[in-house]
Predict the structure.
Amino acid sequence: MDKKERLEIPRQKMPEQDPKERIENMKEVPYGYTEEMAVTEAKRCIQCGKNAPCIKNCPVSIDIPSVMAFVAEGDFENAYKKIKENNLLPGICGRVCPQQEQCQSECTVGKLKKNKECAVGIGNIERFLADWARTNNKEIIVPAEKKNGWKVAVIGSGPAGLTVAGELARKGTEVHVFEALHTPGGVLVYGIPEFRLPQEIIDSEIANLKALGVKIHCNRIVGQSITMHEMLDEYDSIFIGSGAGLPIFMNIPGENSLGVYSANEYLTRINLMKAYKKQSQTPIYTPESLAVIGGGNVAMDSARTALRLGVSDVKLVYRRSEAEMPARAEEREHAKEEGVKFDLLTDIKEILKDEKGWVTGIKVVDMELGEPDEYGRRKPVEIKGSDRIIDVKSVIIAIGNRPNPLVKKSFPEIETNEKAGIKTDPETLETSIKGVFAGGDIVLGAATVIKAMEHGKRAAKYIDEYLHSL
Amino acid sequence: MYVRNEILKKEQLAPSIFRFVLREPVIANHRKPGQFVIVRTSEEGERVPLTIVDSNKSEGSITLIVQAVGSTTQEMSNFEVGQGFHDVAGPLGNPVEIEKFGTVLCIAGGLGIAPLYPIMKALKKRGNKIVTILGARNKDLIILRDEAESISDRMIITTDDGSEGMKGLVTEAAELVITNEKINKAVIIGPPIMMKFSVDVTKKHGVPSIVSLNPIMVDGTGMCGGCRVTVGGETKFACVDGPEFDGDLVDFNELLQRSGMYREKEKEASLKKNHVCRLSNVTGEK
């Protein structure tokens, strides 16, 4: 097949559950490619050559052209092997990576077509391969041939921690992961909803890590159950990946009213504690109307989750316009299709409540976009006298998170950055304490899963170097 | 066979109140008075915060007290020696700051003696004089009486119905104690409504107080913010900023409202499992 023929193949659209149906269940929205679709889509890759912008724009540098070549030939096993060389959690990444901004952003096919939407569906293929391997028992687990004698502790079992753990275990290092909650996965489990990232996928990727020899200790809160000093005595190196688990509130009147949740609490009750299941003992408040405050992926997740729990009127209140929203395009589209109403250029001033403390509405003002701020995003400015009230019975605050304070609290000598996260060398991710590394949201503030994984991968490399210097 | 979080001892202290000693060496080695654990009974179970009442480092055990009031605590009370709870996470929260205050008035309402007892023990060890008011609705619901008595310089028992000790509320006893004796500090633990009125008494007499709060909580590590309380006009998370706070500064009305958020749902859950009754306002459950 020549280049011209390849360019004529239409982009394979991901089949999805109908919006009307899917808001009645928690099942995944996309069904995933069929084998035929995956092969056809992979054939769209023109193997553009050495420059391979996809590899350059992949935070973990997967050899994407080789993967595409294998898939185009129907050799899924070797394609999957190729991915796993660089990425130990492809089932997760294929679902939650912002591919449009990464591997697919500079894809030559998209450029030739003058439409980014026409880039090769790399994310969809990655997801297909991971699902194919999982359902056909073709998982590739190559434990290290022998132990190298080093012992590393990883704090937190989110995307950063799991990546470090897997990478080091592959090299024969004994890795112990400490997780504060009762289930490993961190934000993948408590934050990202089932309909975006099914628990089954996380369980299977974690099982693969365990098969590599990674030991996971749940219900252990570092800084409380074990001190950092005890860990320094017991382990050759430590990686801190404790995440951005401290929700930001707005400090507006009425914020502690009944029916106001942080997105973390709302999603944790539903995802981790399974409040959507009948047999779950964890309660959740589901009135007929609700407002989500914020414009990121977590806001979209909260709004879409609320719909699935039977809240009929879900509004998303965001103080800028849609163009400035940090949420992935796909999430915004899905939210709109499902019936989330966007109340844009609107800022919340107060949460109103009745005499028993329950939310009755929110007081908001209209905004307009002013001068760009330091990041180039146009700053929202209040339009005087535009106060209005939106009637809602519940409010979910999804305006971000700060780094979790527990590790720092028990280990005050470690230096922090301007975001109250842990300060690291920008390249090696080593903290101010020798042999202690950190990565993911505890360093970045609230970012993305793949950025955390990239940190994990990089930290693993430098931890390994550090171990060899001992 | 190794049983995770194995129950070494179980003892019934009162109708529907049980004391469990669990093998939990890591927590036993690290816990300090004022801290709590989060327990789950099953894979689908909710996370229930419970104060660590005591610990034994050499045995590697911790002691918890559970009152069977909701569906999960009811389930917990059915566990027997040799079995283990599904999950025990901790210790969580900050240890209470133990200083030499002088004379400390310790006021416990109902099951509040469970979280108060380890603090009393630490205060006593630090050389404080301990005056205790142990309040319960009736004689049968008084727990940890001997334990409390052994570390108290003086102890007053109050019951609502007069079946034991003084008939009346802990606030009346507190009023009596404070007007007759110089009290340097009060530690008050019990149902939110009892803490609210007790703080009214101590505040009126200028006695500084510590209270231990028990808001609704999910993770216990600062992640969800469900346990937020207003203290001195600022929002605090009971799990990572507390659970102990300056009683004078706590907005108890808000705490009372927030504690009742799922009351109807809890009742439903209890009824579903045919529970006979739901004793109100329990405090061992944070």
Remarks:
- Confidence is low (pLDDT under 50) at residues 273-286 of chain B.
- The longest strand of chain B covers residues 48-56.
- Residues 113-125 of chain B form the longest helix (13 residues).
